[in-house]
């Protein structure tokens, strides 16, 4: 006695499948967004040890961040739907052409070997009959190809939307309209080679006992410019907090208003001190 499938069970199964696919797509979008965002600051995402659940929240900003983002997302997926239909139509035309040509060739082989009894003729006939049987599975392969095409187009669109939004947000946060906080980091000087002395900001700390490997110019460009200075409106100097993660504090100097499109900020990674430190955050630069 056969049991009829429960409609509620089928609906629940489909709903669970959709949720699984949606979760995978959101995680993919969140990972690409953060990869492109931190790549702009020359940081490797895998070294930051960000919580996995946070990647599911980021896509809300990618697709629903503001009115223009919603319109851009709608336009992108509308174009994607058209591209999917065009691709499936093209695949159908090509597959039908190939199948027709194959059937014609196999029919001719079978007709030519119908009354021949040689070993070669028998093998060709057997191969042709086997080919006819294999052509029956074209419909199954076509449905599989259709699913691959749909998933591929959706992933491509999600990739580029997340990448563009990640770079756009990183460029915004690196400039004068940043949403990242202005920072004041106060830490003991024993293990800190840069920074201004609180009691004498005009004196550079001693570099005795420190070593350097790499570009000395990067250090010289930083030394003496560790504090904020907004007196020059064309090239203000503002330090912002990028991230605190894994025992490291990432700071960067915001790009000036006249920064070139390909200019990237230099990031300063500071290991948290065992003796403690103070971080003061502010949405704006102090007026003093």
Supply the number of structural domains: 2
| Computed Rg | 31 Å
Q: What is the rounded distance between the termini? A: 85 Å
Q: Which oligomeric state applies? A: single chain
Low-pLDDT stretches are none
The best one-word shape is elongated
- The neighbouring-strand order within the major sheet is 2-3-4
Characterization of this structure:
This protein has 288 residues and is mainly alpha-helical. The chain folds into two domains: 7-174, no CATH class; 176-288, no CATH class. The chain is built from six helices and five strands; from the N terminus they run αααααβαββββ. The chain has helices at 7-40, 59-64, 67-112, 119-135, 138-174, 216-222, and strands at 182-186, 239-245, 248-253, 267-271, 278-282. The chain has a three-stranded antiparallel beta sheet, with no helix packed on it. A two-stranded antiparallel ribbon has the order 1-5. Helix 1 crosses helix 5, helix 3 (67-112) runs antiparallel to helix 4 (119-135) and helix 3 runs antiparallel to helix 5. The radius of gyration is 31 Å and the shape is elongated. The model has no long low-confidence stretch (mean pLDDT 78). Keywords: Membrane, Transmembrane, Transmembrane helix. The chain crosses the membrane at residues 12-32, 75-95, 144-162.
What's the quick description here?
It is built from six helices and five strands; from the N terminus they run H-H-H-H-H-E-H-E-E-E-E. It has helices at 7-40, 59-64, 67-112, 119-135, 138-174, 216-222, and strands at residues 182-186, 239-245, 248-253, 267-271, 278-282. A hairpin with a 2-residue loop joins strand 2 (239-245) and strand 3.
């Amino acid at each position: 006695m056969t049991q009829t499938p429960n409609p509620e069970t089928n609906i629940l199964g489909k709903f669970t499948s959709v949720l699984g696919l949606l979760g995978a797509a959101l995680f993919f979008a969140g990972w690409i967004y953060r990869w492109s965002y931190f790549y702009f600051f020359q940081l490797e995402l895998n070294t930051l040890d960000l919580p996995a659940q946070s990647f599911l929240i980021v896509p809300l900003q990618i697709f629903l961040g503001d009115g223009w983002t919603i319109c851009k997302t709608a336009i992108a997926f509308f174009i994607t739907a058209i591209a999917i239909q065009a691709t499936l139509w093209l695949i159908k035309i090509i597959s039908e052409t190939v199948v027709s040509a194959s059937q014609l060739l196999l029919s001719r082989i079978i007709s030519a070997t119908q009354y021949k009894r040689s070993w070669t003729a028998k093998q060709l006939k057997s191969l042709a009959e086997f080919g006819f049987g294999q052509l029956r599975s074209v419909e199954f392969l076509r449905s599989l190809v259709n699913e691959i095409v749909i998933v591929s187009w959706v992933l491509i669109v999600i990739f580029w939307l997340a990448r563009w939004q990640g770079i756009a947000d990183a460029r915004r946060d690196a400039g004068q309209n940043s949403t990242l906080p202005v920072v004041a980091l106060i830490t003991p000087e024993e293990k800190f080679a840069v920074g201004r002395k609180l009691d004498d900001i005009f004196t550079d700390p001693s570099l005795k006992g420190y070593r350097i490997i790499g570009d000395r110019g990067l250090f010289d460009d930083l030394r003496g410019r560790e504090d904020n200075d907004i007196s020059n409106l064309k090239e203000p100097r503002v330090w912002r907090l990028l991230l605190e993660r894994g025992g490291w504090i990432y700071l960067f100097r915001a790009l000036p208003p006249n920064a070139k499109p390909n200019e990237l900020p230099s990031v300063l990674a500071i290991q948290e001190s065992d003796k403690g430190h103070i971080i003061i955050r502010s949405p704006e630069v102090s007026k003093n």
